[in-house]
Write a structure and sequence with these properties.
single chain; 29% strand; flat; DUF2169; 4-stranded antiparallel beta sheet; DUF2169 domain-containing protein; 3 domains; 2 helices; mainly beta
């Protein structure tokens, strides 16, 4: 399965059900079973939780809901352990010792390591000197819910080509992103402010053939809340769908 949005290209290899097989004494990957549909969810990528050892439970912090993860102190048998259905074709799983990065397209929860490592340091110094503000080492990229290899270099301008291969019955879904330009007007007291509105999120639902774009605008109103009368969102003049 492959995705292209503008200059971003990403491929994921999709397998049918597989397990570790120890029939001949040496662990090997079983042949994948045929399939017609496969959910492109994190439950199908590498990861998971292993609590087979009561004193040393362990989980994959990058994807605790996945499959294929096994603790170094595991008491779980290897034979028949489900393997991930989604893999990075550049780094396929080959050994029981490997712990590949989970591979998928969907949004990441904030407490998983890809985003949690960007959330900053919440220690005693933060509690005494910063609380309730964010830590000084907080990285704004923590708010990006997409995997890092799906981050755009800048904002969506409109017209970027989109191509999805292997996620629809037709085989290929291809279209340009619409060139829309929302305008935000904020009435503060007697003044009107028009903060820039930028598109930073693209969500593609292949099953429903639904495209969702998210624009954001920021206007500082600290100390001016009583003077906020209204906020209006409209398409800017001349805006159109490409």
């Amino acid at each position: 399965m492959a995705l292209q949005v503008g200059t971003i290209t990403k491929g994921v290899q999709v397998f049918g059900e597989r397990v570790w097989d120890t029939s001949f004494g040496i662990p090997s990957l079983s042949s994948p079973r045929p399939f017609e549909r496969m959910e492109l969810t994190w439950e199908r990528a590498f990861g998971g939780t292993d609590d087979s050892h009561p004193e040393y439970p362990e989980r994959c912090e990058a994807n605790p809901v996945g499959r294929g993860f096994r603790s170094t102190r595991s008491r779980r048998g290897l034979d028949g352990l489900p393997l991930p259905n989604l893999e990075d074709p550049r780094a396929p799983l080959r050994s029981t010792r490997e712990r590949p990065l989970p591979c998928g397209f969907g949004p990441l929860p904030p407490h998983w390591t890809p985003r949690a490592r960007l959330a900053g340091t919440y220690d005693d110094t933060w509690q005494k000197e910063r609380l309730p503000l964010l830590p000084e080492d907080f990285d704004e990229r923590h708010h990006l819910v997409a995997p890092a290899d799906q981050w755009l270099a800048g904002y969506v301008q409109g017209g970027e080509p989109v191509k999805v291969v292997g996620a629809t019955p037709e085989g290929v879904l291809e279209f340009p992103l619409p060139a829309l330009l929302p305008e935000v007007v904020v009435k503060l007291g007697a003044a009107r402010e028009t903060p820039p509105c930028r598109c930073d999120t693209v969500h593609i639902d292949c099953e429903r053939k639904l495209l969702t774009l998210v624009w954001r605008a920021r206007c500082g109103i600290h100390g001016r809340v009583p003077s906020l009368h209204w906020v209006k969102v409209q398409l800017a003049r001349g805006a159109h769908v490409a």
